[in-house]
Amino acid sequence: MHARTPDAGPGTPPRSGPGRPQAGLEQAGRRRPGTTPPVPGRRASPARRPLLVPGLLLAFLVFLTVQVLADAGPLIPLDSAVRDGMRDLAATRGLSWLDGPMHALADLGGPVQAGSVLLVCALATGWIAHRRTMASETERPTGARGPEADDAAVAAAEPHQTHQARRAEASAALPPASPRRPVPATPQPPGTPPPPGTAALTRLYVAVAAAVGAVSTIVIGGKIAIARPGPGEHEIARGEWGFFPSGHTATSAICFGAAALLLGTVLGPRARRRVYAGAAVLCALVGFALLWCDYHWLGDVLASWTLCGLALWAAARFTPGDRPAAETFDPEAGGTGSTRGTV
Predict the structure, then answer these.
(1) Model confidence at 333, in pLDDT bands (50, 70, 90)?
(2) What is the pTM of this model?
């Protein structure tokens, strides 16, 4: 028998030493299921960090709106400086050929053009998700059953054991049937997410439709209530639509952004990043074209981008798959663990 040390009691944990596991390893082994061990050197993110981006966007939108209403602040001289600079740039002799492409880009922010892009991408997302779901179903082995189905089959076969034995003897005399070949599935790029379910995809469609409707309502209400004149316009008459925020900028941003959000649910990581980057570049070109054509102030464009960023952030909460990981404290392990939830 080993001699006990004087300070060792019935509830004293064993000390670490040669041949004894360390206490930290024993605690890590008793970690609750569903959590992952903490990554060394990584700090736990606070629970309210996901609200940082929408909070900043909302504060910037209020900052812009207050200055437009008061017609004072750093935004007003910046708008005038950008307008004068864009007019001088458009009047440059060697850049006159850009007028046609810029007007075409500005027209992409119309409801018909941008709405058509969103509709086509929504249909393409549903079609790709349906094809991948059908392909995944063909990979399942035929006749595969769960334990519940096996128990039910055994219970139903008990009264007819004699009959089943006779059928088994008769079938044993027949030649074996040729095995059914599985249908090869279309290979997917590495990292491609699983096909979203019908319910999850429907929730995303509803979220996108709600985001588009909310942006349209806020933009129209802001134009009527604020009635800001355009760069080359006089005062807006009562009841007419103003220029703040920009309607074409908002329509292009919410439609192209929502289209990229939908396609991102059925694409691999590399293709998803390219679609997101393409949508961002296209929205930036539309905003620049509106400034080039002297249709809007810079503040009008920035306000629409900010508003659409808020709407897209809210719609992205309903994307199928894993939500952003949230660091939680595990009192048993003395550390943090990452938990993920699915929509």
Answers:
(1) very low
(2) 0.67
